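Query structure, 238 tokens:
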């Protein structure tokens, strides 16, 4: 049995609260069970120096976890003077995922930064961040069109992300922390609703996982992402 008695192929209760940050051009509070991530997209009329004069924009992400997002207080990374390797890796993952479905030339010479702040963590913070970040990005681009800054929405597709893992020999979707910490294998999938693969991160703990097991995880993730994308559409009013 899972800690919350879910079926192996079931998502945690998921909720997207659009406009959670009224000051941002786009924002979303992504809730996956007890995991809560606030995603806020900011439009800046500038690009990084290495992109100036190229006629295209940039989309990137930043990720942080509040000190009491976890059971014990975690030291703020600013106190250490730099983000941890884990934080940098997740930030790059968020940025790559969003750029995979954004026409940077259509965005023009401006950038959108999506800040993903973990308010409460119970597993799957990076996948919740990516799924919420897409919604915040989509809302920000809609704002650019409404304000007549852009003629068309530069977001070319939809993405969502979800975890899956092998726990007690069983393939399970959307691991919470108690499952993630004892999993024999776990993976994070960033996919499109059509089945396109943006990124897969998979790790085995004690021994390699088989092709059959990986295929089971991938199948679970595809169904999970399909359900999440339907929820995204509803959150946007579709």
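Result returned for the query:
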């Amino acid at each position: 049995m899972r800690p919350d008695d879910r079926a192996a192929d079931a998502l945690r209760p998921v909720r997207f609260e659009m406009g959670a940050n009224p000051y941002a051009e786009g924002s979303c509070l992504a809730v996956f069970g007890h995991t809560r991530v606030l995603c806020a997209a900011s439009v800046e009329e500038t690009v990084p120096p290495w992109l100036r004069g190229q006629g295209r924009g940039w989309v990137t992400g930043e990720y942080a976890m509040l000190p009491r997002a976890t059971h014990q207080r975690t030291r703020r990374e600013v106190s250490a003077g730099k983000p941890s390797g884990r934080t940098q890796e997740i930030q790059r993952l968020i940025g790559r995922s969003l750029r995979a479905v954004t026409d940077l030339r259509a965005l023009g010479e401006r950038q959108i930064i999506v800040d993903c702040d973990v308010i409460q963590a119970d597993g799957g913070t990076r996948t919740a961040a990516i799924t919420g970040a897409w919604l915040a990005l989509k809302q920000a681009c809609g704002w650019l069109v409404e304000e007549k800054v852009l003629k068309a929405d530069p977001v070319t597709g939809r993405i969502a992300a979800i975890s899956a893992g092998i726990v007690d020999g069983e393939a399970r979707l959307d691991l919470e922390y108690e499952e993630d910490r004892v999993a024999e294998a776990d993976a994070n999938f960033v996919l499109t609703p059509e089945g396109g693969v943006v990124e897969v991160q998979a790790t085995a703990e004690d021994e390699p996982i088989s092709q059959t097991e990986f295929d089971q995880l991938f199948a679970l993730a595809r169904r999970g992402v399909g359900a999440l994308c339907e929820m995204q559409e509803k959150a946007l009013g579709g």
